[in-house]
Amino acid sequence: MLDILIKDILPIFVIMALGYAAGKRGVFTAANAQIFNKLVLTYALPAALFVSIVKADRTMLFDDGKLLIISLVILVGLFLLSYLSTYKLFKHSRSEAAVSALITGSPTIGFLGFAVLSPIYGDTASTGLVIAIVSIVVNAVSIPIGMALLNAGQAATATATANGATVKRGNPVLDALKAPVCWAPILAVVLVLCGIKFPAILEPNFELIAKANSGVAVFAAGLTLSGMKFQLDKEVLYNTCFKLLLMPAVLLIIGLIFKMEPMKLQMMVLAGALPPAFSGIIIGSRYQQYVRTGTSTLAFSIFMFVLAAPLWIWITRLVA
Description:
Layout: H1 2-24, H2 30-54, H3 58-61, H4 65-89, H5 94-104, H6 109-121, H7 125-160, H8 172-177, H9 180-193, H10 203-210, H11 212-226, H12 234-257, H13 262-272, H14 278-287, H15 291-319
């Protein structure tokens, strides 16, 4: 666990601190952070999602029906619960609630999945299966839903503030699907389900830009945070508890009820306990929605993951 903290968690703080320091010293500005986020959201993140998903195969996806169904139902259900709680409980706009769900309701499986699970449970087929399924649910299902909710919220706000005039807007779902961050993972899932193997020789063409995804996103988060005051209020605490405690707890309870294989259950729970997805931070910063609370939630959740990870490893081994 110490090895994971030093090699995988500490670098996130270091890169975020570099972005924060660069912003405070005036090396980069908030406008630069927008450019970084546009680069990641338009090119780096879609490439990273596409490459990570096409490496799976159809047999792997349907190898464990319980894992697939539980991951899909629970993660999407909690994603929607996060959206509703932010909208109803904390009285945010629908657009802000959508970004909140993309952050609080999604684990950063693509960046920390193998880094956290492999040293603990081994680099096995089961580990790859859990990471692949959770990654597909988060990236190919939750992100398109979140983008559709975000577009719908922005369309409603624009219509309401257009001086009483009717503003013609497109379909929020279709508008969301036009974004590379939505259609790239969906295309990858379609290729996998059709049994079409993406040529391995072409993967480096995507991986080169994909490697910029996490580093630039975390740096931009630190840069964004430098322009605003870090907040630690009841909403950030709620988001952190939702992500690090509620999500893995629900996955564990449902997994026990349906008698999942113990090792896969442990890995699924720990995957659910991972910090918030960086993609939500990128989308929020790009659209200027839920930026301060979302970035503060990310920073505090990463810090608290140092305590949450050993706790869930101990609990799942005890009960599973």
